[in-house]
Amino acid sequence: MVDQPHRPIGKSALQLVLATSEEQEALVETIESAGYQTCLGKTGSMELQKVVSAIETAAKRQGLIDQSLYREMHALYHAILEAVQGVTRGQAQLGDVMRTVGLKFVIVRGIAYENQAEGEWIAVALYGTIGAPVRGLEHETAGLGINHI
Question: Which NCBIfam families would you find in this protein's record (predicted)?
């Protein structure tokens, strides 16, 4: 395994999810040169399971996780749920309480510590809007989840 420069995994995910489309390409290059894999996407729904499913599907399609390995699916799931807790202010509910989200998401995977024996980690960052299902009545929101694989 090649020693890579240390770059915080959570900070990398947050910077990427907050980046403009013009900034993303250079930032992806910087993050990937530090040894991480990245995946970007968008999701929106009043149903939490659709948000979770969109992020999981993107991770599988981009090859960030091996769906045949339980530990990888489990780590991703918990990172997503932790990020959703931030977005929903601790109450992981959307449609049940008349809320909807429109989110950008980023997944970053790799060695998060200088000591490579710590193994791989996965971070999920979310940024977008949440609010009543009426255009113009939403506000910004963000969340970050990090879990070891």
Answer: PRK03065.1
Q: The pTM is what? A: 0.91
Report in angstroms the alpha-carbon separations of 36 from 4, 56, 72, 99, 145.
Answer: 9, 18, 15, 33, 16
Q: Among 105, 127, 146, which Cα is nearest to 8's? A: 146
Residue 42 gets the label, from left (phi > 0), alpha (psi -120 to 50) or beta, of: beta
Q: How far apart are CA 67 and CA 16, in angstroms?
A: 24
Backbone region of residue 5 per phi and psi (left: phi > 0; alpha: psi in -120 to 50; beta: other values): beta
Maximum CA extent, the chain = 50
Segment 61-116, tens digit of pLDDT: 999 999 999 999 999 999 999 999 999 887 775 656 567 888 999 999 999 998 88
Q: Residue 2 and residue 130: Cα distance in Å, rounded?
A: 41
Domains delineated in the chain: 9-148 (3.40.1510.10)
Q: What is the DSSP letter of 96?
A: G
